[in-house]
Specification:
Length: 142
């Protein structure tokens, strides 16, 4: 089925100047960018977005990292977009990420890992709503 998923290019990858390279990987995988915005997250936004990880030992570091510079947030649309994006990203820990994936090529650690992608349909919906109003999403005519 055609799905949408929320993708974030994290501060480390924005700083490496590889937004275009990462967008190209999405497009080559059959994913279309149907909404996008660059912003620097406030503490409130970073904590809110990752609220599910509040009790984890890495939460504070995660929030500080996500606030450390601008991020690109985008909605990706396509057949099986959630799983396809996770495939293109590679494993959360770059040491375990398959060769040729975004994290294998650009991530430096499990915390500093270049990209985020929604992990399931329900979280995709919540995460898209966190950043975008319905009218900011431009579905691709097909
Ligand atoms: P992400 O997909 O953005 O969702 C939660 C993030 O928490 C994850 O990517 C990692 O960057 C981060 N994370 C997960 N586990 C750890 C960990 N053990 N140490 C630091 N950061 C982590």
């Amino acid at each position: 089925a055609v799905e949408r998923t929320l993708s974030i290019i994290k501060p480390d990858a924005v700083a490496k100047n590889v937004i275009g390279d990462i967008y190209s990987r999405f497009e080559k995988a059959g994913l279309s960018i149907v909404a996008a915005r660059m912003l620097q997250l406030s503490r409130e936004q970073a904590e809110g977005f990752y609220a599910v990880h509040k009790e984890r030992p890495f939460f504070k570091d995660l929030v500080e990292f996500m606030m450390s510079g601008p991020v690109m947030v985008q909605v990706l649309e396509g057949e099986n977009a959630i799983a396809k994006n996770r495939e293109v990203m590679g494993a959360t820990n770059p040491k375990e990420a398959a060769p040729g994936t975004i994290r294998a090529d650009f991530a430096s650690s499990i915390g500093t890992n270049a990209v985020h992608g929604s992990d399931a349909p329900e979280t995709a919906k919540q995460e898209i709503e966190f950043f975008f109003k319905p009218e900011e999403i431009c579905p691709r005519s097909r």
